[in-house]
Protein backbone atom coordinates (compact mmCIF):
# COMPACT_ATOMS: atom_id res chain seq x y z
CA UNK A 1 0.00 0.00 0.00
CA UNK A 2 2.69 2.41 1.06
CA UNK A 3 4.68 1.42 -2.00
CA UNK A 4 1.79 2.31 -4.29
CA UNK A 5 1.31 5.67 -2.61
CA UNK A 6 4.99 6.49 -3.00
CA UNK A 7 4.86 5.44 -6.60
CA UNK A 8 1.91 7.69 -7.30
CA UNK A 9 3.67 10.60 -5.68
CA UNK A 10 6.75 9.92 -7.76
CA UNK A 11 4.71 9.79 -10.93
CA UNK A 12 2.98 13.05 -10.08
CA UNK A 13 6.38 14.65 -9.52
CA UNK A 14 7.66 13.39 -12.83
CA UNK A 15 4.60 14.64 -14.67
CA UNK A 16 4.93 18.03 -13.01
CA UNK A 17 8.56 18.47 -14.03
CA UNK A 18 7.75 17.25 -17.52
CA UNK A 19 4.95 19.83 -17.81
CA UNK A 20 7.19 22.63 -16.53
CA UNK A 21 9.86 21.70 -19.09
CA UNK A 22 7.21 21.65 -21.81
CA UNK A 23 5.86 25.04 -20.75
CA UNK A 24 9.39 26.48 -20.83
CA UNK A 25 10.01 25.10 -24.32
CA UNK A 26 6.86 26.68 -25.75
CA UNK A 27 7.71 29.96 -24.03
CA UNK A 28 11.18 29.92 -25.62
CA UNK A 29 9.62 29.12 -29.02
CA UNK A 30 7.27 32.12 -28.66
CA UNK A 31 10.27 34.22 -27.63
CA UNK A 32 12.15 33.20 -30.76
CA UNK A 33 9.28 34.44 -32.95
CA UNK A 34 9.16 37.73 -31.06
CA UNK A 35 12.91 38.11 -31.47
CA UNK A 36 12.64 37.50 -35.21
CA UNK A 37 9.84 40.02 -35.57
CA UNK A 38 11.07 42.76 -33.24
CA UNK A 39 14.84 42.60 -32.79
CA UNK A 40 16.51 40.56 -35.53
CA UNK A 41 16.63 43.26 -38.20
CA UNK A 42 19.08 45.28 -36.12
CA UNK A 43 20.63 42.88 -33.62
CA UNK A 44 21.05 40.07 -36.17
CA UNK A 45 19.83 36.49 -36.25
CA UNK A 46 22.56 35.23 -33.93
CA UNK A 47 22.47 38.30 -31.66
CA UNK A 48 25.93 39.48 -32.64
CA UNK A 49 24.69 42.89 -33.81
CA UNK A 50 26.99 45.19 -35.74
CA UNK A 51 29.95 46.59 -33.75
CA UNK A 52 29.54 50.30 -32.93
CA UNK A 53 26.15 50.38 -34.73
CA UNK A 54 23.84 47.77 -33.21
CA UNK A 55 24.98 46.36 -29.85
CA UNK A 56 25.52 42.60 -29.52
CA UNK A 57 22.86 40.85 -27.46
CA UNK A 58 24.83 37.59 -27.49
CA UNK A 59 28.20 37.12 -25.81
CA UNK A 60 27.94 40.13 -23.52
CA UNK A 61 29.55 40.03 -20.08
CA UNK A 62 26.95 42.60 -19.00
CA UNK A 63 23.88 40.61 -20.02
CA UNK A 64 25.32 37.36 -18.67
CA UNK A 65 25.03 39.00 -15.23
CA UNK A 66 21.76 40.92 -15.55
CA UNK A 67 18.79 41.29 -17.85
CA UNK A 68 17.91 44.77 -16.55
CA UNK A 69 19.38 46.68 -19.48
CA UNK A 70 17.65 44.42 -21.97
CA UNK A 71 14.29 44.94 -20.29
CA UNK A 72 14.89 48.70 -20.00
CA UNK A 73 15.76 48.89 -23.71
CA UNK A 74 12.50 47.20 -24.67
CA UNK A 75 10.43 49.41 -22.36
CA UNK A 76 12.07 52.78 -22.94
CA UNK A 77 14.30 52.38 -25.98
CA UNK A 78 17.83 53.78 -26.13
CA UNK A 79 19.07 57.13 -27.25
CA UNK A 80 22.42 58.85 -27.41
CA UNK A 81 25.65 57.70 -25.83
CA UNK A 82 25.71 54.08 -24.73
CA UNK A 83 28.67 51.92 -23.73
CA UNK A 84 28.34 48.14 -23.78
CA UNK A 85 31.31 45.93 -22.91
CA UNK A 86 33.70 48.74 -23.89
CA UNK A 87 32.06 49.52 -27.22
CA UNK A 88 30.45 52.90 -27.94
CA UNK A 89 27.06 53.41 -29.51
CA UNK A 90 25.38 56.68 -30.44
CA UNK A 91 22.32 55.41 -32.26
CA UNK A 92 18.62 55.33 -31.56
CA UNK A 93 16.35 52.46 -30.63
CA UNK A 94 12.66 53.10 -30.15
CA UNK A 95 10.74 51.38 -27.35
CA UNK A 96 9.21 48.07 -28.41
CA UNK A 97 5.58 47.72 -27.30
CA UNK A 98 5.44 44.24 -25.71
CA UNK A 99 3.41 42.79 -22.85
CA UNK A 100 5.23 41.54 -19.74
CA UNK A 101 4.56 37.90 -20.70
CA UNK A 102 5.99 38.53 -24.19
CA UNK A 103 9.10 40.13 -22.71
CA UNK A 104 9.52 37.06 -20.49
CA UNK A 105 9.25 34.76 -23.54
CA UNK A 106 11.81 36.90 -25.36
CA UNK A 107 14.24 36.91 -22.42
CA UNK A 108 13.91 33.15 -22.06
CA UNK A 109 14.80 32.78 -25.74
CA UNK A 110 17.79 35.13 -25.44
CA UNK A 111 19.13 33.41 -22.30
CA UNK A 112 18.47 29.86 -23.53
CA UNK A 113 20.23 30.64 -26.83
CA UNK A 114 23.17 32.74 -25.77
CA UNK A 115 23.54 32.46 -21.99
CA UNK A 116 22.74 28.85 -21.09
CA UNK A 117 25.19 29.05 -18.15
CA UNK A 118 23.85 32.33 -16.80
CA UNK A 119 22.41 32.39 -13.29
CA UNK A 120 20.04 35.26 -14.08
CA UNK A 121 16.56 34.34 -12.82
CA UNK A 122 13.83 35.28 -15.26
CA UNK A 123 10.30 35.95 -14.05
CA UNK A 124 7.45 38.35 -14.64
CA UNK A 125 8.06 40.13 -11.31
CA UNK A 126 11.41 41.56 -12.43
CA UNK A 127 9.76 42.88 -15.60
CA UNK A 128 6.93 44.49 -13.58
CA UNK A 129 9.55 46.15 -11.39
CA UNK A 130 11.51 47.54 -14.36
CA UNK A 131 8.24 48.79 -15.87
CA UNK A 132 7.38 50.62 -12.66
CA UNK A 133 10.85 52.18 -12.54
CA UNK A 134 10.63 53.22 -16.20
CA UNK A 135 7.24 54.87 -15.59
CA UNK A 136 8.67 56.74 -12.59
CA UNK A 137 11.63 57.96 -14.65
CA UNK A 138 9.30 59.20 -17.37
CA UNK A 139 7.47 61.38 -14.86
CA UNK A 140 10.63 63.12 -13.69
CA UNK A 141 10.86 66.61 -15.20
C1 LIG B 1 15.62 49.43 -35.69
C2 LIG B 1 16.76 48.82 -35.05
C3 LIG B 1 16.57 48.15 -33.70
C4 LIG B 1 15.62 47.24 -33.31
C5 LIG B 1 14.47 46.70 -34.13
C6 LIG B 1 15.94 46.87 -31.94
N1 LIG B 1 17.05 47.55 -31.53
FE1 LIG B 1 17.97 47.32 -29.75
N2 LIG B 1 19.29 48.81 -30.24
C7 LIG B 1 19.35 49.46 -31.46
C8 LIG B 1 20.35 50.51 -31.43
C9 LIG B 1 20.73 51.44 -32.55
C10 LIG B 1 20.91 50.48 -30.13
C11 LIG B 1 21.97 51.42 -29.56
C12 LIG B 1 21.28 52.69 -29.07
C13 LIG B 1 22.21 53.77 -28.62
O1 LIG B 1 23.31 53.90 -29.15
O2 LIG B 1 21.84 54.49 -27.66
C14 LIG B 1 20.24 49.38 -29.42
C15 LIG B 1 20.52 48.97 -28.14
C16 LIG B 1 20.02 47.84 -27.54
C17 LIG B 1 20.48 47.28 -26.29
C18 LIG B 1 21.68 47.79 -25.45
C19 LIG B 1 21.23 48.46 -24.20
C20 LIG B 1 22.34 48.68 -23.21
O3 LIG B 1 22.05 49.28 -22.16
O4 LIG B 1 23.48 48.29 -23.46
C21 LIG B 1 19.71 46.21 -26.02
C22 LIG B 1 19.82 45.29 -24.83
C23 LIG B 1 18.74 46.09 -27.09
N3 LIG B 1 18.98 47.10 -28.01
C24 LIG B 1 17.79 45.11 -27.16
C25 LIG B 1 16.82 45.02 -28.16
C26 LIG B 1 15.76 44.06 -28.17
C27 LIG B 1 15.55 42.98 -27.13
C28 LIG B 1 15.02 44.30 -29.29
C29 LIG B 1 13.75 43.62 -29.73
C30 LIG B 1 12.65 43.60 -28.79
C31 LIG B 1 15.64 45.42 -29.99
N4 LIG B 1 16.72 45.82 -29.26
C32 LIG B 1 15.21 45.96 -31.20
C33 LIG B 1 18.56 49.18 -32.55
C34 LIG B 1 17.47 48.33 -32.57
UniProtKB/TrEMBL annotation:
Listed GO MF terms: electron transfer activity; heme binding; metal ion binding
Keywords tagged on the record: Heme, Iron, Metal-binding, Signal
UniProt xrefs under InterPro entries: Cyt_c-like_dom (IPR009056), Cyt_c-like_dom_sf (IPR036909), Cytochrome_c-type_DH (IPR051459)
Signal peptide: 1-21
Source superkingdom: Bacteria
PROSITE patterns reported for this sequence: CYTC
Record domain Cytochrome c: where: 26-114
Pfam families in UniProt: Cytochrom_C
Record-linked PANTHER family: ALCOHOL DEHYDROGENASE CYTOCHROME C SUBUNIT (PTHR35008:SF8), BLL4482 PROTEIN-RELATED (PTHR35008)
Protein name: C-type cytochrome
Amino acid sequence: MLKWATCQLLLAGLAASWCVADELDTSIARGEKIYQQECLECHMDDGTGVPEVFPHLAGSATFAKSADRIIDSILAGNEGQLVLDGQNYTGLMLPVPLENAEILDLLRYIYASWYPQSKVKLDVKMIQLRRALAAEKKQEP
